[in-house]
Amino acid sequence: MLIAIASDHGGYELKEKVKEHLRERGEKIVDLGTTSSESVDYPIYGKACAEAVASGKAERGIVICGTGIGISIAANKVKGIRCGLCTSVEMAQLTRAHNNANMLAMGGRTTAEELAMEIVDAFLDTEFEGGRHQRRTDMLDEM
Ligand code: RB5
Q1: Which residues line ligand 1 (CB under 6 A)?
Q2: 55-94 pLDDT, tens per residue?
Q3: Distance 130 CA to ligand 1 centre (A)
Q4: Which end of the chain is more exposed for a tag (fewer CB within 10 A), N or C?
């Protein structure tokens, strides 16, 4: 799977760890920055990653800032994006199964590394359930 990934400075360290994990899984990665822990603005990176997914360049996106909040807000402003901010494996499973999330957001300052990798695995390995959830995601996409 081709996965776009981006972070601000607050998510930079975790982004680099997630990239290692994705490579170990055999995924292809497009890294859209940032490239260090120097302070940057998360909307730029959330938008860039979301546009890569919305355009079809990447199948899924992963964005990380300090809390995951700001960068998920940015990603969700791009049409066609359903970005779920997840702090547990259950949330990652449900944002795929129910929301058909095409992007995952996490907090580099709020989520431990080991848990983050489990969240990534759940996000990538859980299928959308469709059915009544399809109607609801269609409503989201029409907004
Ligand atoms: C940056 O200090 C921090 O505000 C950002 O990473 C994020 O947590 C915003 O939601």
Answers
A1: 8, 10, 42, 65-67, 69-70
A2: 999 999 999 999 999 999 999 999 999 999 999 999 999 9
A3: 33
A4: C
Between the CA of residue 41 and those of 28, 37, 70, 102, what are the distances in Å?
26, 12, 10, 22
Which conformational region is residue 8 in: left (phi greater than 0), alpha (psi within -120 to 50 degrees), or beta? Answer: beta
Average pLDDT of span 131-138: 97
DSSP letters spanning 52-78: HHHTTSSSEEEEEESSSHHHHHHHHTS
Which of 7, 15, 41, 42 for mutating ligand 1's site (highest number of atoms within 8 Å of CB)? 42
